[in-house]
């Protein structure tokens, strides 16, 4: 890609505010072509230096039509972002830090700030273009999806793209949250794949040298989780389990969800679930991240624009965000 093309992509993006700390995480709020607002994030994990690990979290939609129970981004939905609008978020950050050569050992790009990536074909175009646009040997894309039905063609193309460009360095993640079908339907209120479909796809996705597919639980004490259901469907050789806290979002408070993972990374009510999975050979990752990120508003499920619009503000999160 020529310099002029990069410049014109960046012209589509006008940064109107940024929040956070450069040595942990920054949230950027940008205006794009037709006046829509999008946000994206960069973060590092102290004490690991940026050259070892750098994570970008970009939006794929303006709002999100899914409306998960704990996510502040699901409050409204306007449209899908174009390839250019997604690429512009990435290039803004790479330009800011390095230019086109990214000497970072683990350079993760998560398509996970706002929007369900599987509902947007442009995400696939971005994944195809990135290896041509950036000189980034450590590049590792990460797709986190609720697996909406009717998007089987999207998932097939994703598998082809992974096999072509990203063998061994692609993170595929399904958001599960509950092993009860009824409760999963309440937490993620759209039609989505059942565990049969997820396991069939995951089995095909993980090929020699690939990373395991992640099953993610944003674990609330109110969630129902049963290790025997996981064992019935998912092979521990192909799937790993990731447990994350329910972050302090407006939606989590409204829906009375209490995180089952505490600040030290201990699982409280569902400890047995974790132990049973580990005993059965599953790799279980408890991922708490930086607590400071809750205050910045850069953590999963947080959405600065929801905070700016709120009449009554949460006390312990988004504290770096101030209305101009
Ligand atoms: S968690 Fe993802 S899919 Fe669910 S509402 Fe938020 S952005 Fe949309």
UniProtKB/TrEMBL annotation:
MF terms (GO), sorted A to Z: 4 iron, 4 sulfur cluster binding; metal ion binding; RNA methyltransferase activity
Main localization, broad class: cytoplasm
Compartments where found: Cytoplasm
Protein name as catalogued: Fe-S-cluster redox enzyme
Keyword hit for Lyase: no
GO biological process: rRNA base methylation; tRNA methylation
Cofactor: [4Fe-4S] cluster
Residue ranges of every copy of the Radical SAM core domain listed in the record: 50-283
Keywords, comma-separated and alphabetical: 4Fe-4S, Cytoplasm, Iron, Iron-sulfur, Metal-binding, Methyltransferase, S-adenosyl-L-methionine, Transferase
Domain of life: Bacteria
InterPro entries in UniProt: Aldolase_TIM (IPR013785), Methyltransferase_A (IPR040072), rRNA_lsu_MTrfase_RlmN/Cfr (IPR004383), rSAM (IPR007197), rSAM_sf (IPR058240)
GO CC terms, sorted: cytoplasm
